[in-house]
Amino acid sequence: MIVNMSPKATEEQIQHVIERIKECGFQPHVIRGAERTVIGAVGTGGRRGELEALQVAPGVAALIPISQPFKLVGRELRRERTVVNVGGVPIGGDHWVVIAGPCSVESREQILETARGIKKYGASLLRGGAYKPRTSPYDFQGLGVEALELLKEARQETGLPIVTEVMSTEDVDVVSEYADMLQVGARNMQNFPLLRRLARANRPVLLKRGPSATVKEWLLAAEYLLSGGNPNVVLCERGIKGFDSELRNTFDLAAMALAKELSHLPVVADPSHGTGRRSVIPAMSRAAIAAGADGLMIEVHPCPERALSDGPQSLDLAGFAKLMAELDRPARTRAAAVRA
Ligand code: PEP
Ligand code: MN
């Protein structure tokens, strides 16, 4: 339920409504706008009849039911777009950012060379996996804490904030010590214990869409984070299972645009995993920006043929430089991306 306070409501009246929402068994979410305060009452099992009676409480202008199942992630309660601050870099708003780096952190040389290169060509954040979700248990699983140390060194040298995946609840504390943003991998999108734990983490979360998740399931996964207390969530479209084996996944830009329409959260696009094919990444990057992406996540490796994971979809540094030039780095405008 949305409680719209009157523009003339006093602080005391607002506090009274917040208290009553709690007493009725719901969680209050207060949004203070320039003109008026809006309070969302969300949760299950509360006394709805009593909540509805708030219609006649002093200072209340109107009560409006929230029709979407994703109450806090949706735009009914919050119209303005959310901007998420990641180590000083804002994601969302009227500009877009690039998160780049290798699939996995493999060595000191590899991550430092990549970090220097991507910074030079205009990336704003460094990615790199320390804990890797691999389809086969025989594949490279990541260097763990050693990789986190290397990422820290790369951040110290370049100033680029770090985005890295956390796969299990046990690793949340250690990864949060090093990372500026915690990535939830596609395969973990519906790992509810992990989402509940990350709702209490003091780091922003990059929530990848599951390979077979609907937009509604994706937004409800984000709802776990917001309802549990973490408002700093960025959604990431990374492709869904399709039938064409020429491409690793089907890069679903329509879903990305829809997620942005239905939610106030920033949405970034990952054409590297979305296609699995280096050659189409520039075209899909331009398409994503034109469709409204708040950022791109691009896998870059100094020598993709030697990569321990996702080499075929990784750009080398020259390829990344070319992509950034095509995207019209200085202007960073959507119009420029469409023209290229
Ligand atoms: C990754 O970012 O390297 C990764 C494993 O992504 P996803 O979870 O989208 O497969
Ligand atoms: Mn990868």
Nutshell version of this structure?
The chain is of the alpha/beta class and 340 residues long. Helices cover 33% and strands 18% of the residues. Phosphoenolpyruvate binds next to loops.
Bound molecules: phosphoenolpyruvate, manganese (II) ion
The helix/strand series, from N terminus to C terminus, equals EHEEHEEEEHEHEHEHEHEHEHHEHH
Give the distance, in angstroms, between the N- and C-terminal Cα atoms.
45 Å
Number of contiguous helices: 12
Sheet with the most strands: spatial strand order: 7-8-9-10-11-12-13-14
Radius of gyration: 21 Å
Residues in helix, %: 25-40%
> Strand-residue fraction?
15-25%
Provide the structure class: alpha/beta
Average pLDDT:
95
Using the alpha-carbon principal axes, give the shape. Answer: elongated
**Biggest β-sheet: count, sense, barrel?**
8 strands, parallel, barrel
Number of strands: 14
Structure explained in plain terms:
This protein is of the alpha/beta class. The chain is built from twelve helices and 14 strands. The chain has helices spanning 11-23, 48-52, 108-120, 145-158, 172-178, 192-198, 215-227, 253-262, 271-275, 281-290, 317-326, 334-339; strands spanning 2-5, 27-32, 37-42, 60-64, 84-86, 89-91, 97-101, 125-127, 162-165, 181-184, 205-208, 233-237, 267-269, 295-299. The strands form three sheets. The protein has an eight-stranded parallel barrel, surrounded by six helices. Strands 2-3-1-4 form a four-stranded antiparallel sheet, covered by helices on one side. Helix 6 (192-198) crosses helix 7. The longest helix has 14 residues, at 145-158. It starts with a strand and ends with a helix. The mean pLDDT is 95. Phosphoenolpyruvate binds at residues 103, 129, 133, 185-187, 208, 238, 273.
